[in-house]
Fold this sequence. Notes:
- The chain has 181 residues and is α/β, with parallel strands linked by helices.
- 29% of the residues lie in helices and 27% in strands.
- Helix 4 (131-145) packs across helix 5.
- The relative contact order is 0.25.
Amino acid sequence: MDxxxxxxxxxxxxxxxxxxxxxxxxxxxxxxxVEFLKGETRYRAAPGPAGLAFRxxxxxxxxxxxxxxLELRLTPETYLTQVAPAxxxxxxxxxxxxxxxxxxxxxxxxxxxxxTEAEVLAKGGLRFADEFARHKLLDLIGDLAxxxxxxxxxxxxxxxxxxAGNINFAKILTENCTEPQ
Length: 181
C-alpha cells in the first residue's frame, strides 16, 4: 500500500465487477443547486450534464502547499490516472499527536507524503504538482460514495474540503436529490 487508492482500484479491476440481481445502483439527480458552508469551507452542487464534474480548491497557509485548484470530469479513466494515484498527506508537527491518539500507527514515507517546514517528503517525489488537491478530491469521492447513492448529472464545487465537511455535504445532497431513476 502506498497511501493512495490506486492499489485498491487496480485490485478491483483485476478481480472484475459482477452485478448482483436486485442491487443495481440507480442514479440520483438534483433539481436545484444546494450548498453547505461552514467557516472557510464551502461546497456546492448544481445540476449539470450527465456524469460528474468536480471543481476543487485546497488551500493551506504553508509555503509548500498554498493554493491548489483542480477541475476534472470524473470517468473511470480519469479516476484511475488522475485521482486514485494521489497519496494521503500530513504535516510533521501532527504526527506525534496522531500516534498518541492511536492513529497513523502504520504511517511512513512508504505510504504517505509528509510536509515539514522546509520540504515535502515523498517517496519518488510528488506524483502531481497538485497532489494535495487531488487527494482531497479522492477523499470527497469516497465520502460521497459512502452515502450509498450513485450521483449523476452534477457539477460539484468544493473549497477547503475535509472529511467532516464531505460527510455533511453528502447528507445534504442525499436529502435534496430526486428519486433514483
